[in-house]
Amino acid sequence: MRKIALAGLISLLSLSPTYANDDGMITTVIHAGQLLDVKSGKLLKDQFIIIDGDTIRDVVTLRDMEDMEEEDIKFINLSDMFVLPGLTDAHVHLTGDANIHGYKRLTRSTPRAAITGVRNARRTLMAGFTTVRNVGAPGFADVDLMEAIEDGDVPGPTIIPAGRSIGITGGHCDNNLLPYENRETAGGVADGPWAVRTKVRENKKFGAKVIKFCGTGGVLSKGTKVGAQQFSFAEMKAIVDEAHQLGLKVAVHAHGEEGINTAIRAGVDSVEHSSFISDEGIRAAKANGTYLSMDIYVSDYILSEGEEAGILVESLEKERTVGKKQRERFQAAAEAGVKMAYGTDAGVYPHGDNGKQFAYMVKWGLSPLQAIQAATINNATLFGVETHIGSLESGKMADIIAVESNPLGDVSELEHVDFVMKGGTVFKSKEE
Ligand code: ARG
What we know:
The chain contains twelve helices and 16 strands.
């Protein structure tokens, strides 16, 4: 054991050798020039994050560091950077390809989608997103991707997979592209309270860690109306009760106001999209503590690149109304102080561009801090993992990112994350 003297520390800061302690665990110290405490919104100067293996042991000042006795330490010098907790996204489809929409989708097998997912997982992590909720994948490709990442086979964020999205026959979560002779039914389709409970149980059985269902029509599905509710209250209640009984959170896809109100009444944890949420819906969300996960960037991509990517003409038509209205309602919800999640629908647009939504959320009513909180501590709470991630505190995972300038000044800085650590392992750094 030796004490780390200040002079020794400064000289070590420029080195980054890797050492293992006696018990084989690597201790890493990150010198954060500015560390954002996402809970208080304060930027703390010259903090030292001490990491044992994959977990933050403590966050201390230089004075505390001098008293630290340690065998060997790996130092990471981020003294000229702004350090934050890893970002999170409540709504992605890692197996989705932004260039492959509409009828092009029919040519893609589930194994092929999983391989696309490998590429997308890497892009997502490199963009600074260290945990994502994957709200719907063909088969259980997202569960397999989660496992491959956990096993260290491929790099990617921590995934909270939904497996198959649950939906009504002919609804947004079904596949309505083919005629009767060549008909296809999506894996999560079920009608009736007991049938949907079975789907929840099956999803859990095959690895889902969150339940996603479709409570209204959608933009990208054929023949559905965004304003029309899908599933009755009894069916929604059955999904939510069964999921909660099994310890799973529930995310509902819902654009139209009736579907949103009914889903909130049924007890969902988050409403995805929320495009036409009424004032009544906003009040209900506030009263029930329901999170809104509003993907207010994606419209720009759909309307500019969508046609080439194969998005149906009817979908482009729907998007022209939905995108605009959704931003207005986001502003109303932000003003009312509803709990905001950070959910983007990456997969519809390119993975790795998850950070583009920050600037939109600020343009439409949140402060930069609130937008960052949505993507860190709020999402962590919505996911039910706030004791593990969401802020840089003792006992939490060492999921840490850094950017060059102050994101509280210009939140679009988070579109260019320079340093990414996930679970104590560095995946991206300026030096490399
Ligand atoms: N997956 C969603 C749907 O098809 C995408 C909605 C995108 N548009 C929007 N303005 N958020 O309904």
